[in-house]
User: What shape does this take?
Amino acid sequence: MAAAKGEGATNEHAQNHTNTTPLGDHNEEQSDRHGSDGENPFYPSIVDEESVDSSVSEPPNTLRDRLSRLLRWPWKTPKSVYQFTGDAEKDQLIKSLDQYTVGYPKVAAFENADPSFLIYRKFGWLHNRLLLYLQDELAELEYKLDKLDKATFSDDEDIKLSSRRDDWIGPSKRRDLVRQIAQKLEEYDEHLLRYQKVQAIRRPTIRNQASLYNFVQNTESLIEPEYRWIRQGMDLAAVAREEEHGWFNGFLEDNLNRISRKATQFVFRTKEQKIVTGHENVSLFDPHRLDIFLRVVLTILAAILLLIPVLILFKLQPASADEVRRKGKYQVLTIFVFTMIFSASCSVFTKARRQEVFTATAAYCAVLVVFLGNTLNDLGGRR
Assistant: This one.
């Protein structure tokens, strides 16, 4: 009954279209909406007019309808809209590593589990070998062109060297040679610029390299000759973007795992990552959660580096003029030591450039010097 009813509605709709639309436009529209089989999943061919809600298809005409639509609460969404509950197991379609067969499928799934495992070879030796060959071919063409120019000049045909139009009239060896050079130069430049981009890709960390190697070896996904390339560290490329605190992230992850592996995974691992790892012995950390933790640690470290020298300088504050010389050298030494620690922290824990490190260090040192100057001014005022 439903199919018959739908066909009647379709035929009626087609008849109305025939009366209001030119034949050519109607055929084009039908050919766009229906494929070779007469059906297109993006344009349904059967429309049940009784199932269409008139309140949705027609705009509100009365003032009451307009006001009710404007005053609708934002969380009152139509029932047809899917509501995400925040539970990764229900909302997302996630495949764990256990669901992939052993071999290249499991290795690809492991690399897709975390951007840090996106490690591949650069093939630098092959790039260099190809560039050397292309370079020598260009050098050979360069020699031929120079030899042809000298022969043309010695034959009293130097006009061909001064005018391209006269030289390229009819058959011309120089024209053919220049075209060969242009093609070879284009090929050479393309490979050279491409290799420049490849060489700019940073090398993966030893930690990520070891993680990929251990996973492939422990799961026996690949035979030994086909995963030997993972040990070629100098020829490896880390595709993922470098993190701001790359080595510090790894340092924290390793030490937090040593303290309590379960607590660390509970805090820093999301439900999605838990599903992805499955029963494999793989520890994944949410970079956003880890970044928040690192920012808190660095904030505390910055506060300590500022407050501790202030407290030391306050304790070393001279009470009389006789103590200025005795305690003054310790105050200067305190400023020097903590300024060096602050500068080293900026260089190690951040990606600040040299001028930025210099500016931050100068500002830090200026704060301590101003504090020291205020203490000496207080001493002079008491005198």
Q: What stands out?
A: The beta strands are 119-121, 236-238. The longest strand covers residues 119-121.
